[in-house]
Design a protein that fits this description.
Elements: E1 4-7, H1 11-23, E2 27-33, H2 40-44, E3 47-52, H3 63-73, E4 77-79, H4 89-97, E5 101-102, H5 107-114, H6 116-125, E6 133-134, H7 141-151, E7 155-159, E8 168-171, H8 177-192, E9 197-201, E10 207-215, E11 221-233, E12 236-242, H9 249-264, E13 270-278, E14 284-290, H10 297-304, H11 308-316, E15 333-340, E16 342-343, E17 349-350, E18 353-354, E19 357-359, E20 371-375, E21 382-383, E22 390-398, H12 401-413, E23 416-418, H13 424-432, H14 434-437, H15 445-448, H16 450-453, H17 462-472, E24 501-510, E25 513-522, E26 525-530, E27 536-542, E28 549-554, E29 557-566, E30 569-574, E31 577-583, H18 586-591, E32 600-602, E33 607-612, E34 619-620, E35 625-631, E36 634-639, E37 644-649, E38 656-657, E39 662-667
Helix pairs in contact: 4-5, 12-13
Length: 669
Amino acid sequence: MFDTILIANRGEIACRVAATARRMGIRTVAVYSDADAQARHVQVCDLAVRIGGPEPADSYLRADAILEAARRTGAQAIHPGYGFLSENAAFARACQDAGLVFIGPPASAIAAMGSKSAAKTLMSKADVPLVPGYHGERQEPDFLQDQARAIGYPVLIKASAGGGGKGMRTVERDADFKAALASCQRESASSFGSAQVLIERYLQKPRHIEFQIFGDTHGQCVYLFERDCSVQRRHQKVIEEAPAPGMTPERRKAMGEAAVAAAQAVGYVGAGTVEFIAEPDGRFYFMEMNTRLQVEHPITEAITGQDLVEWQLRVAAGEPLPLRQEELRIQGHAIEARIYAENPANDFLPSIGHLDVLTWPEHVNFRIGALRVDGGVREGDTITPYYDPMIAKLIVHADDRDQARQRMQRALGAICCTGLHTNIAFLGRLMSSRAFATADLDTGLIEHEHDHLFPAAQPASATVLGLAAAALLPAASAPAPHSTGTAGPWQLADGWRVGAHYARTLTFGDAAGERSLLVRRDGGAWTLAVDGGEPQPFHWHVGGPGATEIRIQLGGSEAQGRVHLQALRLDVFSDGQRTTLQWQDPISLATQQADDTAGGLTAPMPGKILSVAVAVGDTVHKGTPLIVMEAMKMEHSIEAPHDGTVQEIFYGVGDQVQEGATLIALETP
């Protein structure tokens, strides 16, 4: 076994590998960019080496810097994690040439599966079923459009060298094909260094089912059952579960054996995932093979009771697989939710910013259990524009699927995260959606359940407003502490007045607009009236100095929750929901200047301008593409919200812009 390994990655996977290595008595070396100097993965490893600037091309994609870090620290092996260089055959080969063990498959296997087109040709020879499509080398737009017509719309354009939903578009009409192709090729070239794509028939109501396989250097290969990853947005997974609902033993055996055949066709060693697309009638087709550990590997660990990172380390050290196929068993059901810094209501655009508050329900990290959090960031960290905006993975394990679903819903409701947009509330609605609850799964589930998943904003309830009011008047619940003498009226901080009367109006902004609360004290009795309604008896308790835990009684109801105040924003967490309120503090409002950006189009997130499709003086119509931005290697098109004339363009191609920056001034006719 190794004495020291270097982890050539960042975030939660680096933390995950470090935890298992520590348990096995192996020292770990972290590498980090300038953006990650204080990151969690740097602190959990035994050693850390800086490898470059914040851009991946200047750090985590620099094979030379990573190999030099391994040499300097005496590491014997390199774990690539996932993403970055994990599926780079040249890097695997360079590790071998440097006398280092690459904890992954041979470079030849990575190369064979690295091109989706070449992999499909190989799978065809191995009699693994394929989706109808074009997987060849020719890339002329006219030729590819002819292939799409022959396949029949809708078709899926996919980056040949990619994954993670990048460089992928669904095309419904022939007229849209070339624009979608150009966008895919740009995104693919940016993310993977290759603009080559393939075209496939887009299956109706398909499920995305993948099989975890593992091979060793002794010729053995097993499958550790399947994961259903059908719940996706922009072709990227949101929820994964294992085993796949409705999977019969016969179908599992057929798909598992096909996955093993795919791995054996390339002499595979280590952890890998063979991904299939499955139709309702049971037919399944090979999509691709990921030659690395997957983000969703914890749910396989949960149902099998195995630590897949430990398997990776043992296999890389030359040991045989710990178990044979007939020794593997499925135990219960597991679900994983990916917690992202993104705004589901704004097309899931990444949210960059500071994690002011981040607390989790009670859990066990990096171990198989009922509730687990694999995270690479902490409260106080910043989500930057340089890397994937994942905050953490939340994993639950239970006896059956419905119990796991309910456990996940409760766990999501117990998370407190403020400072930026997240998908936590969206994931909670996914858990309660009809389609997910009944396992009516396919890759279009989010679109089918749109009304449930994207409800109209609702006004804050009276109890939420009461919790917010209590957070602004915490001392009114009890006398102020004192050291000597008898408490007199001048030592109380509970709203006492000479005339025994106290009144204060608090104004908040929420989805319903402006909300007005009148808090009164008459003698020793407090009341709260919401939006001019009938005053209700009001009592509250704040859990100690500086605490955010609040309990209230309003009229005949009781509620409890947590309230976090940042500037004039209050985030109220109660009953599994987060409500954001804007406090209309009259003192602060008096000093603010209105920022009038009427007529301007603003950047929905930080990013880089890739292209500008208009010029000053152009007349545009609603929906006309104006600017294409890139953020976190994903393209986003900015379209005209109405007809108008372009008055001014504030940025050019290659410029970096911040969220909210005015991009174009558009005059309304």
